[in-house]
Design a protein that fits this description.
Blueprint (H helix, E strand, L loop, with lengths): L2 H4 L2 E9 L7 H19 L3 E8 L4 H10 L3 H18 L6 E4 L3 H16 L3 E11 L4 E3 L4 E3 L5 E3 L7 E10 L5 H10 L4 E2 L1 H12 L5 E2 L1 E2 L7 E2 L2 E6 L1 H6 L1 H4 L9 H6 L4 E5 L3 H14 L8 E4 L2 E3 L14 H8 L1 H11 L6 E3 L1 H30 L12 H22 L3 H22 L1 H7 L1 H21 L5 H10 L5 H4 L30
Parallel strand pairs: 1-2, 1-14, 2-3, 9-15, 14-15, 16-17
Antiparallel strand pairs: 4-5, 4-8, 6-7, 8-10, 11-13, 12-13
Bound molecules: ligand ME8.
Length: 519
């Protein structure tokens, strides 16, 4: 048996983004959070499959392409490349970047369709309603209103709607109301956070109508099996990406057997209904297992104001990473905003986190302790004497961080994990100031060695645990702590304390203060 055979599989996905434009900070936020989760599980010994990608079909793509005078495929190619570049810029560790124009995806989308059809859940009829191109969704009369400008809008999403009639295939969503409610009851963490899950539940309780799942007014999509006049409604095709990535329709394949059902789909709050209602209904109809969890995050707003192209406040993720450093941005996003709620960002908020949490609490502690060790302990991990109660308390608090972080990551509470970690760093800073090893240097060298050892040991544990959030900076910190081996960086190494005498390289500052550029 190879080591990967014995590892527990863990399959995690982001939503797949519409490449009708270039990525913004909201996309970056979702990618970074999901990446942190994937990295955490890898470091914790899981066999992780992490997928992200682009959702390339549908009327919105076709219309954006028409505006530019190019084909939808050309637009998708260009912008999908921009999303792939974002992944590289942000150090996203996905195992596959799926595009819904990939050949294997057409096969998967058609296969799930056929399964739902064989179940008797798909029928041909006619659709008429208010259609929003932006949302790729129909609305009823009640869900729309004519505003001052004389244009009719969807009340919920503020997007323009037009009256559309077409022959359409329907999915018998109405038949799944009770089954969905039973699912929510049996699996109270199927979707989170609870407040957003509650919205889903009350929507389903309000009654479900059958869903129009094909279009005839354009052809940029996956053809409906047996009736190529129709293309699949983009959401049928899009949601199926999660199956394609692990080998569907070959349900006997090694990857499907191993990774399906997905452990977590990470998505934003605007698409919770698609993931927590339509998706499990499609899967039930197709006799496939359901994902274990849909984690719904909030939206990021620029200084509390909604991002939009017309306001000119859309932030390009790469610009941010260039300005502050990638790991500072990754840290900021996950530390600042409790995952599941909405968040706001501003230059001041990022700089605040960089300077206080990173440069002061972590960087300074590392720099001060490591330079003392370099000067006074022969550039090697010092030999501690007997531990006092203070030493033991600090070491115990750091030792508990692994379990605390596991519990937090299991519910995607990145903010909670980081908060607990920084609490220990705060306490360690206080300990360091109180113990004053620079004074002990002249009065009690053995005690100085012990204090420095304890401090380095806390830093080692913290460095291991923050790798998912700040992979590069944590790696640098582990290097200056003499922890270069991959094995020493896994979570399984947390319980093995620093070995006195381990040689340490010259310390280098890792978390610089942010300096405002000169005018
Ligand atoms: O919805 N803050 O694609 P998308 C945080 N193709 N997250 C945000 C955000 C913001 N300001 N804006 C968008 C789609 N997102 C579909 C998904 S999945 C089978 C198909 C999130 O490009 C959004 O909630 O509009 C979604 O999870 C992701 O970014 C992609 O959004």
């Amino acid at each position: 048996m190879t080591s990967s055979d014995s590892q527990t599989p863990f399959y995690i996905t982001t939503a797949i983004s519409y490449p009708n434009g270039v990525p913004h900070i909201g996309h970056a936020y979702e990618a970074i959070a999901t990446d942190a989760m994937a990295r955490f599980k890898r470091l914790d010994g899981y066999d992780v499959f992490f997928m992200t990608g682009t959702d390339e079909h549908g009327l919105k793509m076709q219309q954006s392409a028409d505006k530019e005078g190019i084909t939808a495929k050309e637009l998708a190619d260009r912008n999908s490349a921009a999303f792939q570049q974002m992944s590289r810029d942000l150090n996203i560790s996905h195992d596959r970047f799926i595009r819904t124009t990939d050949k294997d995806h057409y096969a998967a989308a058609q296969a799930i369709w056929k399964r739902m059809e064989e179940k008797g859940d798909i029928y041909l009829s006619k659709y008429a309603g208010w259609y929003s191109v932006r949302d790729e969704a129909y609305y009823t009369d009640d869900e729309t209103e004519v505003r001052e400008d004389g244009i009719r809008y969807s009340k919920e999403t503020d997007t323009e709607v037009t009256w559309t009639e077409e022959e359409s295939y329907f999915f018998r969503l109405s038949a799944y109301q009770d089954k969905l409610l039973a699912l929510y009851e049996a699996q109270p963490t199927f979707a989170a956070p609870q407040s957003k899950f509650n919205e889903v539940i009350s929507f389903v309780k309000g009654g479900l109508e059958d869903l129009s799942i094909s279009r005839t007014t354009f052809d940029w999509g996956v053809p409906v099996p047996g009736n190529p006049e129709h293309v699949m409604y983009v959401w049928v095709d899009a949601l199926t990406n999660y199956l394609t990535g692990v080998g569907f329709p070959d349900t006997e394949s090694e990857s499907f057997q191993k990774y399906w059902p997905a452990d977590v789909h990470v998505i934003g709050k605007d698409i919770s209904r698609f993931h927590a209602i339509f998706w499990p209904a499609f899967l039930m109809s197709a006799d496939l297992e359901l994902p274990k969890r849909v984690m719904i995050h909030g939206f990021l707003h620029n200084k509390g104001v909604k991002m939009s192209k017309s306001l000119g406040n859309v932030v390009a993720p790469k610009e941010w990473a260039d300005q502050y450093g990638l790991d500072s941005v990754r840290f900021f996003l996950l530390r600042e905003v409790p995952f599941g709620g909405d968040g706001s960002y501003s230059h001041e908020a990022v700089v605040g986190r960089m300077n206080s949490d990173l440069a002061n609490n972590l960087g300074n502690l590392a720099q001060r302790s490591l330079s003392m060790v370099a000067k006074n302990c022969g550039a090697a991990v010092p030999q501690p004497g007997e531990f006092t109660d203070e030493d033991k308390a600090i070491l115990a608090a750091a030792g508990e961080l692994l379990e605390i972080s596991r519990k937090a990551y299991d519910v995607q509470d990145f903010h909670g994990a980081l908060e607990a970690t920084w609490k220990v760093l705060g306490d360690t800073n206080a300990y360091f100031a109180e113990q004053a090893p620079w004074v002990l240097r002249k009065t009690d060298v053995e005690r100085m060695n012990t204090v420095l050892y304890v401090t380095l040991e806390v830093l080692r544990i913290v460095a291991i645990l923050i790798q998912p959030v700040m992979p590069d900076s944590a790696a640098k910190l582990l290097t200056v702590l003499g922890q270069d081996d991959a094995a020493a960086r896994r979570f399984s190494a947390i319980g093995t304390p620093l070995v006195p005498g381990t040689p340490l390289p010259a310390p280098a500052p890792i978390f610089p203060k942010y300096e405002e550029p000169a005018e």
